[in-house]
Amino acid sequence: MHTTWLHWSGGKDSAYALTKLSQKEKLGGIVTSLSAEFRRISMHGVREELLDAQAEAIGLPLHKVLIPRDCNMQDYDQVLSTEMEHLKTMGATRCAFGDIFLEDLRAYRQKQMDAVKLETSFPIWKEADTRTMAKSIIESGIKAIVVCVNGKHFDKSFLGRKYDADFLNDLPSEVDPCGENGEFHTFVYDSPNFSSAIPIKLGEKVDKLYTPASNEEDEPECGAKPAWDTQFYFQDLLLDQ
What we know:
single chain, about 25% strand, 5-stranded parallel beta sheet, alpha/beta, Rossmann fold
């Protein structure tokens, strides 16, 4: 039997993928990439202690991949390769991802895992159109809050909102309901797979402006696609203890 590790972003798609995986696969743990400098989840900006709280609520081991500042894609691939080899020593035979429909991203994931001889699993891949999937995520009992939005599509008023029917109704027409193109990101604070909800409170809202690097291989966040939508807004979250 395969032992699967889920690449966990902390957001709703990962949580939905986890609900599917837990029904049919043996789970070894979750793996998450964080900024080595700021100790926050890559692209989501969520604090490490909140990630730790998610892992505790899920009840699975958490493996952290620390991404150095200003790494290019070649550096990122090497870091990930090293960490995936480490997962294999912990019994991993397969890695799962919460991707929905981006063919190039799926091909990239498979190439990464093939290089280290790990199988891949995409438990929610094209399960439904994303409007339908968004409703399924909400109806499943997954509760998430919006922590990052792309300034090309949103103003800061969307930060800190719950991912619910009202949020979906207010989305600009060009935005995917699941944010599959990177339009927004979420943090899951409760889920059917959690032993209990994570108490959170809102911190400050932060603007980030990324400047295209002169080297085309360099990117604002290691592993991100260089589309150069450069304005992002982040909602900081804190544990409410």
